[in-house]
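Final report, Chapter 2: Outcomes

The project's central promise was a pipeline that accepts a single protein chain and returns its three-dimensional structure in a standardized token representation, suitable for archiving and comparison. That pipeline is now operational. To close this chapter, we reproduce one record exactly as it appears in the project archive, with the input sequence first and the structure output second.
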Amino acid sequence: ETAAVPGYRCQSSHLALKWQSCCQLKVYDCCLDNCFRALCCKGPPPPRPEYDLVCIGLSGSGKTSLLSQLCSESPENIVSTTGFSIKAVPFQNAILNVKELGGADNIRKYWSRYYQGSQGVIFVLDSASSEDDLETARNELHSALQHPQLCTLPFLILANHQDKPAARSVQEIKKYFELEPLARGKRWILKPCSLDDMEAVKDSFSLLINLLEERDFEPSRM
């Protein structure tokens, strides 16, 4: 038999309490460390990518109004663009720096001077315009699609003013503008739009952003 050692039980209890307290401290330290890591390692969200776009179209097509609405500007302050203007249009996954060019007859001949550095093109047309204006818009779009600085870029073509009675459908626009044969092999989107349905406009721009993102991940060509 083992003789009882005075104070042995007391020492054992003391050691057990000390061990339990130490473990509790380690658990507490571990929780603090995890919380610290969660707070410090999370950091700010990554910056949204920015893309430089050029927006063209005849006067009266609605370029300025659409872009102003996307920027949540007051409709009362909208003034038709006579030269050019630049707007930063924010989206959840990107910021579009849009250079809008005036569409008057005496300005369109200078459009190409502002194409350099563009990563995508927005072409706005009035789907309810006269036959003459529609023909002019068709020629301008053809010229842009074939321009050396734009021909490889993604295009968003907006058939605006769909809320007007004389508006032509997307299928009519596609056929009249001969988009299928002319833009074959290019990346383009044709969508109907109006100021009455800005959610549809935003969805169209989201599709353009997808094309811009795909371009970012394309393998470089030697």
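Archive annotation: Confidence is low (pLDDT under 50) at residues 1-19.
This record, like all others produced under the grant, will remain available to the consortium after the project formally closes.
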